[in-house]
Write a structure and sequence with these properties.
The protein has 2 helices and no strands. The chain is an all-alpha fold.
């Protein structure tokens, strides 16, 4: 079996990676705020904004769903109230029957 020559890869050591080029600069407060606004602006350019027709359609759908939910909650409240009133009316009759 022939001997294989193992080469040592030149991997940077932690001391090598701390060159001035790779070290982070400390950013002053005003530069941080300016950088944040620049990044925010670039991200907002990537947003796909809805068309006015889509806005109207989505608003209509949202209002319709809210109205349906309100009606369902109102009906559940009405039924629960009637059940509660029926129980309250039935309790005295139940007590008198004992």
């Amino acid at each position: 079996m022939p001997e294989e020559k193992i080469e040592k890869l030149d991997t940077p050591t932690p001391a090598d990676t701390k060159t001035p080029a790779t070290r982070k600069r400390k950013v002053k407060g005003s530069n941080r705020i300016a950088r944040w606004f620049r990044e925010m602006r670039s991200e907002l350019k990537k947003v796909v904004w809805p068309t006015p027709k889509q806005i109207v359609n989505n608003t209509f759908v949202a209002l319709t769903v809210m109205a349906c939910a309100a009606v369902v909650i109102w009906l559940l409240d009405l039924v629960a109230g009637e059940i509660f009133v029926a129980i309250i009316r039935y309790i005295p009759r139940l007590i008198q029957g004992w």
